[in-house]
Write a structure and sequence with these properties.
GO molecular function, one term: transcription cis-regulatory region binding
InterPro entries: LacI/GalR-like_sensor, Peripla_BP_I, Tscrpt_reg_HTH_GntR, WH-like_DNA-bd_sf, WH_DNA-bd_sf
Keywords: DNA-binding, Transcription, Transcription regulation
Radius of gyration: 26 Å
Number of domains: 3
Number of helices: 11
Pfam families: GntR, Peripla_BP_3
Protein name: GntR family transcriptional regulator
CATH architecture of the largest domain: 3-Layer(aba) Sandwich
CATH topology of the largest domain: Rossmann fold
Largest sheet: 6 strands, parallel
CATH superfamily of the largest domain: Response regulator
Length: about 375
């Protein structure tokens, strides 16, 4: 029997059961419907329903007990083409010390724990070379799939393309890789840049700088935030001055000269008539805000400053920093869900998966009415 999509009905039943096992509707050791129950549910013969169960058993997803029925195998016992399927999914991240990373990890771990997988964590330490080594080693070491937080959207393209072409399950978070078709889960960075610039324009700012320590070509996150910033200017009939778009300077800055570098940068932007600054992330925003206060430049009266990421430090400043909050937990959780679905060859997965962001306004952009103190209860 064939369905309307020219797919044999036993395969329809098999794929439905496979998806339910993947998504945890049937957990390890749970009993799946019997031949008779499946025949009635799908309106097919017992021969058809039996074949669906035989195929699932052949793929190593279930085992059958004589006189009892069919049951879902424990993940470590499942077989795929004669090989044991590892219950380990690896996550490669470029750093650990950040507000975002524990939430990414918790989201992924919560999903995987509930579906019988274990999460192994590997730190590339912002090194493309180390990231490449991990991408090469982990599939050979038994990792069933990889969740990758890339160092760069343009790095290690050849190995990522090879893994994707070979059908190895991989999902990127934070960034997407153009042109490869690799599934990604990212924040809506475009909307973050667009909404932030739009708010500043509505406040009367017409000279808004964009400051990023890295090139907009290096990571899709920074690029999309910049494109959103550009769109807000176009919609409001404002010209973007390339001289106040500052990018790709990270090689010039270190712990010893950071304060002097940002002070000089801020002085130059103010000289060019800038009244608001969108920054790559909260770290850059905080540096510029501290420099402004040290230089006697009132924030936000003379210059408004916005960060991105809602790091903990952004709240605890003399002038708290306005920022854009990302839902890191949801990104990690969604990436884990998608990579598990990929393991079971779900063909309905969207390549680009975008999680909404939330603008958080604090004192670095909020001008107070004259004579009203920020701590006033009135």
């Amino acid at each position: 029997m064939i369905n309307n999509e020219n797919k044999p009905l036993y395969m329809v039943i098999k794929d439905d059961l496979k998806m339910k096992i993947t998504m945890g509707e049937y957990s390890p050791e749970a009993q799946v419907p019997t031949e008779a129950e499946l025949a009635e549910l799908y309106g097919v013969s017992r021969i058809t329903s039996k074949r669906a169960l035989v195929e699932l058993e052949r793929e190593g997803l279930i085992y059958r007990k004589r006189g009892s029925g069919s049951f879902v195998k424990q993940l470590g016992e499942r077989e795929d083409s004669g090989e044991l399927v590892s219950p380990i999914i690896s996550m490669i991240v470029p750093f650990m010390a950040s507000y975002s990373m524990p939430n990414n990890l918790k989201g992924a771990s919560d999903y995987l724990d509930a579906h019988g997988y274990f999460l192994s964590i590997h730190n590339s330490d912002w090194s493309l070379k180390k990231e490449r080594e991990l991408l090469t080693k982990l599939p050979k070491s038994g990792s069933r799939a990889i969740i990758l937080y890339p160092v760069s959207s343009s790095g290690n393209i050849e190995i990522l393309s090879a893994l994707h072409s070979n059908g190895y399950p991989i999902v990127t978070i934070d960034q997407y890789i153009d042109g490869l078709g690799i599934t990604s889960v990212t924040s809506d960075n475009y909307a973050g840049g667009y909404e932030t610039a739009t708010r500043l324009i509505r406040e009367g700012h017409t000279r808004i700088a964009y400051v990023s320590s890295i090139s907009i070509t290096y990571r899709s996150t920074v690029r999309d935030r910049y494109f959103g910033y550009c769109q807000a200017h176009r919609e409001n009939g404002l010209t973007i001055d390339p001289e106040i778009v500052i990018t790709d300077y990270y090689r010039q800055v270190n712990d010893q000269n950071a304060r002097a570098f940002y002070s000089a940068l801020l002085h130059d932007l103010m000289h060019k008539g800038v009244t608001a600054i969108l920054t790559e992330n909260d770290y850059v925003g905080v540096e510029l805000l501290k420099c402004a206060l040290e230089m006697g430049i009132p924030v936000p009266e003379k210059v408004a400053i916005v960060g991105f990421d809602n790091e903990e430090m952004s709240q605890h400043l003399e002038v708290p920093l306005s920022t854009v909050e990302q839902n890191y937990y949801e990104i990690g959780y969604k990436a884990a869900e998608l990579v598990v679905r990929m393991i079971y060859q779900d063909k309905s997965i969207e390549t680009r998966n975008v999680v909404p962001v939330n603008f958080i306004e604090r004192q670095s952009t909020r001008k107070q009415p004259k004579g009203i103190d920020d701590d006033s209860e009135n």
